Amino acid sequence: MSSGIMNVHILPALSDNYMYLIVNETTKETAVVDPVEPDNVIAACKAKDLNLTRVLTTHHHWDHAGGNKQLVSKVDNLTVCGYDDRIGACNKKVSHGDEFKIGSLLVKCLFTPCHTSGHICYYVTSPQGDGAVFTGDTLFAAGCGKFFEGTADQMHDALIKTLGSLPDSTKVYCGHEYTIGNLKFARHVEPNNEHVSKKIEWAEKMRSENSPTIPTTIGEEKMINPFMRVVEKDVQEFAKSTDPVEVMGRLRTEKNNFVAR
Is 96 in the active site? Predict the structure, then answer.
């Protein structure tokens, strides 16, 4: 993503993780999201002549926060943001509604507990009004994270009320490349959803070229992601409930046992 002042560089990590560099192109001030492979982050910043100043940690799981301590040992004066006491090297505790800047880019912290009890998403906007949200393991392209430390009502609040209230044009940068598997589950839930069918074709082409399927947008998620479509008739019929929170929980249970083919 490049929108003048704000630029986002996608850095693949581990087997299917993504790290992200959020760059203020005017000042080259840069934040990194979930730097699980610190050496690759440092190399990318050097190659692009970026000034890395901040770490945005979404949650404490090792494949997101596990590189923090090593990165801090190699880069001076890093501010490491996170909500959870379990996050390594965290020196800036953040909570819902907290704001700070990367140069002229505004970052707003969104508390989205469920996957973990301390999960934070980071919503970044530029002076031109462009927006991007870094969702860790709360919202994926066409899916959501497992409810490891939370409940269906928490994920409902996170997806529908918190993230779903962002502008539809907001680009979504999630923590993993799970898109094809998620879309196959979405097709299982809504076999007649043409948006899902088209997205599967596109995603398979992208992955065949070893290209990321990220970012998506909040508006697109509302069309393809069953976890953001809990009030839709076909999704409710699949879940055998008209209660949105109950639908959320039943979808997650189904997804936990779903084998993509």
Answer: no
Question: Annotated catalytic, 119?
Answer: no
List 34, 60, 115, 156, catalytic entry: 115
60 is catalytic: no
Q: Is the pLDDT of residue 3 over 90?
A: no
Alpha-carbon distances of 252 from 103, 135, 136, 153, 239, rounded to whole Å: 39, 18, 17, 12, 10
Q: What's the rounded Cα separation, in Å, for the pair 103 and 123?
A: 15
Task: Identify whether 64 is a catalytic site residue.
Answer: yes
pLDDT of residue 2: 54
Range of weakest confidence among 3-7, 81-85, 192-196, 208-212: 3-7
Q: Where are the beta strands (DSSP E) in 92-233?
A: 92-93, 99-102, 105-111, 120-125, 131-136, 139-140, 143-144, 171-174, 216-217
C-beta atoms surrounding 219 within 10 Å: 13
